[in-house]
Amino acid sequence: MASLNVVELLKIADSLKHLKRTGWVKCEVPEPETVAGHMYRMAIFSWSLKGELEGIDIDRCLKMSLVHDIGEAIVGDITPHCGVSDADKHSKEKMAVDAIASMAPNGAGIEWAQLWAEYEAHETPEAKVVKQLDKFDMVAQAFDYELKYGIDLQQFFDSTTKCFHSEPFVSWDRDLRKRRQEALDKK
């Protein structure tokens, strides 16, 4: 790998370490998580499922978790509230992922781009697992912020009511919402 690509790839990783997630910024969360923090937590979630989901390649899920938002290093964290169409968002992110993938050595970038495309299509069992992990991580983070900062992030719970369709995500979501309701009842 050329040293220029190493430097550029490090810049990409660095930008993800500092890029705050847009949804939390828009909701004025005092210390919002970064995109890299989100991807790391998803990778940990993925890894924790090793041996738990029959027929699912958890190593693939782990890798997919680590690259599913990598294009945001170039285009930023585009949410449904940013006024960008889904098609335009996908196009921008694909170009960004392709550019980032071209910097990676030994075919790793090809795998990153393939995993990103697989996630975006959410047709494979692994992509469906990672999509549910993504949504669960978001509501779990929302609940953490509600407890920590005393803010109402109901919109994140509303947006995920139909996102969980398999175990353990259905049970995790049910448990999280129960805990949230109990916390709200105590106020």
TrEMBL record:
Protein name: 5'-deoxynucleotidase HDDC2
Segments passing through the bilayer: none
Domain of life: Eukaryota
GO cellular component terms given for this protein: cytoplasm
Catalytic activity: a 2'-deoxyribonucleoside 5'-phosphate + H2O = a 2'-deoxyribonucleoside + phosphate
Keyword flag Electron transport: no
Annotated family: Belongs to the HDDC2 family.
SMART domains: HDc
InterPro entries: HD/PDEase_dom, HD_domain, YfbR/HDDC2
Functional description taken from the UniProt entry: Catalyzes the dephosphorylation of the nucleoside 5'-monophosphates deoxyadenosine monophosphate (dAMP), deoxycytidine monophosphate (dCMP), deoxyguanosine monophosphate (dGMP) and deoxythymidine monophosphate (dTMP).
Enzyme Commission numbers on file: 3.1.3.89
Subunit structure: Homodimer.
Boundaries of every HD/PDEase domain copy: 31-148
Keywords, alphabetical: Hydrolase, Metal-binding
Record GO terms (molecular function): 5'-deoxynucleotidase activity; metal ion binding
Pfam families listed in its UniProt record: HD_3
SUPFAM superfamilies: HD-domain/PDEase-like
Names of required cofactors: Co(2+); Mn(2+)
